[in-house]
Amino acid sequence: MYVDRGTITVYVSDMARAIGFYSETLGLPVAYRGGSGFTAIAAGGGWNIGLHATHPGSPTPRARGALSVGFAVADLDAAIATLRGRGLALDSPPPSVGGIRLAHFTDPDGNPLYLYQVAG
């Protein structure tokens, strides 16, 4: 099976704060607003990050769980500088390992995210 688009659902405790983080801090456009409980953020390549408000019985945001969303960037150092300029704390990337460099950070609910740059 090949999937060329879809949604990665991220449960959030405060929708307005999450929208601000993903759209303003990360600079990703809002693709769709589904009332107060759901907002799709365009992540590129036909994929969305579906911000889903928590409710009784739903999953809760995780500080370090099974979810991790990575964003490919052409220039990791420039992306880090931009996000730090917007007040985001990111790990300093280690040297390239296997042709890839990573910088980790979290959203306001502690969901783990990362930037990555592939060498060449």
Please, could you describe this protein's structure?
The chain has 120 residues and is of the alpha/beta class. The chain has one domain (6-118): 2,3-Dihydroxybiphenyl 1,2-Dioxygenase, domain 1, CATH 3.10.180. It is 18% helix and 36% strand. The chain contains two helices and seven strands; from the N terminus they run βαββββαββ. The chain has helices at residues 15-25, 76-85, and strands at 6-12, 30-33, 38-44, 47-53, 69-72, 100-106, 112-118. The chain has a four-stranded mixed sheet, covered by helices on one side. Strands 5-7-6 form a three-stranded mixed sheet, covered by helices on one side. Strand 6 (100-106) and strand 7 form a beta hairpin. The chain starts with 5 loop residues before the first strand and ends with a strand. The model has no long low-confidence stretch (mean pLDDT 85).
Provide a concise account of the structure shown:
By secondary structure, the chain is α/β, with parallel strands linked by helices. Helix content is 18%, strand content 36%. The chain is built from 2 helices and 7 strands.
Give a topology summary:
Blueprint: E1 6-12, H1 15-25, E2 30-33, E3 38-44, E4 47-53, E5 69-72, H2 76-85, E6 100-106, E7 112-118
Parallel strand pairs: 1-4, 5-7
Antiparallel strand pairs: 2-3, 3-4, 6-7
